[in-house]
Each structure stands twice: as structure tokens, then as C-alpha cells.
Amino acid sequence: MKKADVFEFYRRLAEANPHPETELESGNAYQLLVAVVLSAQATDAGVNKATRRLFEQVTTPAEMVALGEAALKQHIKTIGLFNTKAKNVIALSEALIADHDGQVPDDRAALEALPGVGRKTANVVLNVAFGAETFAVDTHIFRVGNRTGLARGKTPLAVELKLDRATPQPFRLHAHHWLILHGRYVCKARKPECWRCVVADLCAFKPKTPPPKGSSADAAADPTA
Hints:
Layout: H1 3-16, H2 29-38, H3 44-57, H4 61-67, H5 69-76, H6 82-100, H7 108-112, H8 119-130, H9 139-148, H10 156-166, H11 175-185, H12 216-221
């Protein structure tokens, strides 16, 4: 995608959603870290449902350790891989207490050294909690980057690095949120909704998906209707 098209791509997404935010609910950096760890192979909605009561009780690593692994499992048992995730959350909470005075570090290496925290999780925390210009490549961003031609790559890291090089100011801070939300609600995995996409003419995906039969968009596209 040409530089001018990349700028216009983001400009349109920004115009449609000027203040994008993560859909994971949290009250501080620690709760955000826990929520992102829990969100692996799970939906944000599912995580939020499980953490609302948990986060009423737990706001710090010390409170999580005091809660204990067994009680944590009861809170998050509706989330996939909850046994492993509960073990990791307790372990990362203990590590934060032992190594970081109970605070979430704003350093990538320190974050990735925590149990259950990979590059994507670290990128989300650095961006949302600390305002870093990072690109957390999940399945949505990986798909959007490759499908649109914005940032093609065979691995999440390859897509991340291309996004980092290609994304201009003033869009870098919120870029990954725009891309995630676009992939989640418009550029869907099975069938992208090209007929209502604000960047369809800039996108390399072909053929474009037509509107559903009988919809208002379908009628508007059909001059005989």
C-alpha cells in the first residue's frame, strides 16, 4: 500500500472512531495486565464478564496472591484454559511483588519475563497503560494487515514490524485499536463486510463482499431495485 493510501486508511478509521479504546475492562495497570493475560484465546466480552466481580475484590498483586489460585479459578472458570491462566496470574503477581515492588513495569523485557506474558500482551500493556506507540498483533490485526495489504507478513512479528515502519503520525498511538476493532466488527474472518467498510477502495482484498440480499445496502447498489 502506498504511503498516501496508508495515511488515508488511518485517517478514515480515525474519523469514524476518534477515541478508540480497548474493550477489556480494568481500573489500573495491574488489572489491565491480568485481563490481557486472561484474554488469550478468549473474547474480551467473556473476560469482562468473568473479571467484573474479581476486580471488585482484587486491585493489586498482593490482593491476588491473598485470594489464591483456587478462588481465582472459581472467578475465571468460564474462560478457556482457566487452570493454566490462574496459575500464571498468581505467579506473575508474586513476581511483581518480589521484583517490582508490586508495580507493573513499563519495560518490555520486564513484562515479557513475567509468567504468561508474551510480546502481544506486553504491547497492549505498554500502549494502554503507559502510552507507548506499540502494535499488539492479534488474530484480527494479522488478518487485516494481510488482507488489506497494509502490512503483509507470515508471522505476527513480521506484521508488527511492518506496521511499525508504515504507520505515520498522528495515528501511531491508537493504530492497533483501530485495526483490532475494524477486524472484529467489519473485516471479519469468515466474511468481511466490504459493503460498509470505510476503506474498501484502498484495500487489496478481491473480490469485495457484496451486501446481503434484501438489505438496504443491496437495494441501493441495485439500480433496478
